[in-house]
Amino acid sequence: AHLDAATHRLLADLRAFDSAGGWSTQGARTCAEWLSWRLGWSGNRAREHVRVAQRLGELPLIDLALRRGELSYCKV
């Protein structure tokens, strides 16, 4: 549950970072491209995390369940 709650914090921060366009100041074309460059994630993994982060902002009950550690990232 603690890992799932920490994943929620990562995704919430990622959503804010993406929305603010913080990735563009370092020359990346997309947030996913920035994640691939900075974290060494595959393009697919980076795109999936950005997509999930954005959707969580539109799904408050699922967002809350992940924040509480009641759902895992895989289930989200």
Question: SSE layout and pairings?
Answer:
Elements: H1 2-20, H2 31-39, H3 43-56, H4 60-67
Helix pairs in contact: 1-3, 2-3
What does this structure look like?
With 76 residues, the protein is mostly helical. It has helices at 2-20, 31-39, 43-56, 60-67.
What structural class do helix, strand and pairing data support?
mainly alpha
pLDDT averaged residue by residue: 95
Total beta-strand segments: 0
Q: Helix segment count?
A: 4
As a percent range, the share of strand residues is under 5%
Topology as H/E string? Answer: HHHH
Biggest β-sheet strands, sense, barrel: none
Helix content: 55-70%
Terminal CA distance: 14 Å
Rg from Cα: 12 Å
Shape: elongated
- Uncertain spans, ≥5 residues at pLDDT below 50? none
Provide a compact summary of the structure.
The chain is 66% helix and 0% strand. The protein is mainly α.
Features:
76 residues; mainly alpha; 66% helix; elongated
